[in-house]
Amino acid sequence: MDLGDFTIKKFHDGLLAKKFSAREAAQAYFKHIKERDLEVGAYLSLAEESALNEAGRVDEMISKGEAIGDLAGAPLAIKDAILVKGLPATAASKMLEHYTASYDAGAIKKLRAEHAVFLGKNNMDEFAMGSSTENSAYQLTHNPHDLDRVPGGSSGGSAAAVAADMALGALGSDTFGSIRIPASFCGIVGLKPTYGSVSRSGLIAMTSSLDQIGPLTKTVEDNAILFKAIAGRDPMDATSSDADYGDVLSATHGDLSRFTIGLPDEYFIGGLDGTVAKEMEAAIEKLKKLGAKFKKISLPHTKYAVPAYYLSMPAEVSSNLARFDGIRYGADPNEERPKNLLDIYLKTRGKKFGAEAKRRIILGTFVLSSGYYDAYYDKAQRVRTLVKNDFDEAFKDVDVMLTPVSPTPAFKIGEKIADPLAMYLSDVFTGPANLAGVCAISIPTKPSSALAPGELPVGFQLIGKKWHEADLFAIGRHYEKE
What we know:
Blueprint: H1 8-16, H2 22-40, E1 43-46, H3 48-63, E2 75-79, H4 106-113, E3 117-122, H5 156-163, E4 169-174, H6 180-186, E5 189-192, E6 212-217, H7 220-230, E7 260-264, H8 274-289, E8 293-297, H9 305-320, H10 341-347, H11 349-352, H12 355-367, H13 373-394, E9 400-404, H14 420-424, H15 431-436, E10 439-444, E11 459-464, H16 469-481
Parallel strand pairs: 2-3, 2-4, 7-8, 7-9
Antiparallel strand pairs: 1-3, 4-6, 5-6, 5-10, 9-11, 10-11
Helix pairs in contact: 2-3, 7-16, 9-12, 9-13
């Protein structure tokens, strides 16, 4: 069984043709994981028993002639910040080392209804705080294309699992680029949906006003299949919506002449790695040949997006992580009972939060404190509104925008971990879409099979209007066919 040849569609067709059973496929994935993940480190935990049981149910459905959807039996990996009932949910933090999810996230409920198979939980930056997956409290995840390099973050384990054929697809979460950056670094497709399009219920919150669950897959078509399955209203998430996304699965037809693609001046003003700049030019030329029209546009407040985010985000972090106080969450059943409240905090919040989590909690508490709220947090929110207004204005003239995903390809492990500011700047091209609440996707400039020996993957980013994921999928599928 060639796992590298599978897409969701090919897997589904193979199941229906009885070339293999869902249980055989799941067993093949677990065998491959136990071999390959020794060097990649994409998984924090496996769910072999429950996965094989669900695969067996799919085989029974097929044997009885029951209709099944595209995702029935599909072996998927899940970021460890997304709750799957009965499985660990650590968010890659020692604070949740002993926590097992007691319910399913909204997106997981939808996938269960499709009879998807959950292989296990993926490594990530602790509480989704990072761009490299080096902030995990448990292990390093390595880029499958070069084991000396990072897979990106914070959904690095999910991206690495898909890129290394250890899952057919995966769910990650994106707050400021945490799906798109690892997708670019690992040479796969990653979507940050419109804010509110996918339920955040059951996603361990980092920055509630920005966090969004989204799919990581090998192809744009697979991405559309997963997105359609998880999108929609959830009564457990008041911010979720039943918007009309159009036909995200429609086959490509004609050329791309109906699309005008904007090129923001602020994203192409220098500082790009030479390889990234070259790949961006090649992607633009390819889309021009497919009929797309291009227009230069301006997003003048882009340069303020990163500082605005790193003031408003820690404020929400300090609030969201206050619940991890060592009483309901964070307590270790094997430790001696603490003597008083201060002792509880010192043994849990003092010891079990990593350096990046502590840094953001402290900064967030500061910007929300009396005398500094107006000077920092309130001003950051005003800048966020200006960034959103830039997108609203630009989208009057263009249908989508094209930008780099990251200034560089995947960097070496350890290269930026000691310099938080350099790490934060990895998000400079992805973050504005989160602040504006629009959809954005990372697509490889070339398939992994076309990479020369030693060549690293590079992704380009398409940013679309709210609820217009179908535009991103249409352009992406045309590009993939070419």
